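We modelled the chain as a single entity of 486 amino acids. Its sequence is:
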Amino acid sequence: MSPALLFSFVVAYFVILLIVAWYTGRNANNESFFIGNRNSNWMLVAFGMIGTSLSGVTFVSVPGDVGTKAFTYFQITLGYCIGYLTIAFVLIPLYYRLQLTSIYNYLNTRFGMTSYKTGASFFILSRTLGATARLFLVVRILQEAILQNFHVPFVVTTLIILLMILVYTYEGGVKTIVYTDTLQTTCMLAGLVICVFYILHTMHLSFGESISAMQEKGLTKIFVTDPNSSLFFVKQILAGAFVTITMTGLDQEMMQKNISVKTLRDSKKNMVSLAFIMMAVIGLFLFLGGLLHLYGAQQQVTAKGDKLFPELALHHMPPVIAVIFIIALISALFPSADGAMTALTSSFCIDILGMQRRKDWTPAQQKRIRQRIHLGMAFVFLLFVMVFEWIDNQSMIGVILKVAAYTYGPLLGLFAFGILTKRQVKDRLVPVVCVISPILCFILDKYQSVFFGQFQIGLELLIINGVFTYIGLLIISADGRLDRQH
């Protein structure tokens, strides 16, 4: 299919998003932008969060990784389920009880202003790196599939995508995103299912026959029982649980949508539903990955990792599948990028600038400042995507999880210490602890063969980071108990 025709479908899809944004963003204010006026439908939020949780990285990297890691990613998915249930019954009740707009206000209530701003700063760093890594992968595919044929530079492609996201999130924020994410998740899942059925039909395989063919190539292995391996199932399940607790439960982007739901009960239902839906969806992505490797071998395609799915969909399948792939890919991109940009804007306005505490700013001034911050976040996204363009990576999902281990670890330690103990900390020393912990983890990771021999540290580095932070907070904590509300 010609790049011009593919581009026309992208434009048509974006026009639909604009219509939804215009309809939902009418009469929106800061309360709409930040938490959707606390009036979001839980079923829409739950369904839309599938797209936000998965992103374009899952759409491309998880199937691509099947060639080297088989179905072992499902071990992490089992951990995800544990993590979602923990969020539903531990963190969400806390957020609702305190009526938080920014979840990091809990740290202010519990420890003090310095801890609060430290937690928010780590979120801003974490989400910026993670979201731009996800954005980079999809922009690179769109660049290679469409825009390079028009001799459009990569930086211009990135700018176009960011402007598209800005246009439909500029006014409505969370209120708009709840609806656009629902549309985009529908398109992404439809694309996933259609690609699965196309390959099965083309290769004349039933479900059972395809599983047998994957088994012959060693692609269906789920559990790794070697304790020394970084893919050992206990490590992966634990890591998956804590990745979810941190990247969802301690993440303003994800919780911003969740606390926009009307009631605590509905918010819990959202999380519990998401736990089981994600297991099914990621299982389907892994199955697609196995099919892609079977189909790629039949077509004698040598592409691997993140490049396998785009290569097959765009050059070895009918034009209609290429269109479906591009729309599904964009649908996977936008929920992670638009929500991240909105959440980062919210966190910077509320947590760093203290917008809700500033009585001298009128609503009009607040809205103007919020819009400028939103534009600034788009510029930051552009810079970081260009950094990833200069760094060549075979699998962006590995990069994202590694970044999460270093940057979400201090948040895990802060919230765990606040929830599990009654001790107060020396607030001014909290940033020192939260900086030292990732540095220690970096040393441990870099020289792990010296420290542990054959034993390999994988994603559980996030847990270790949280433990280091917890111990550091314990060292700087006071013996007395809190007398403030928490």
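As a brief sanity check on the tokenised model: Residues 444 and 450 are 9 Å apart (CA to CA). The longest helix spans residues 264-298.
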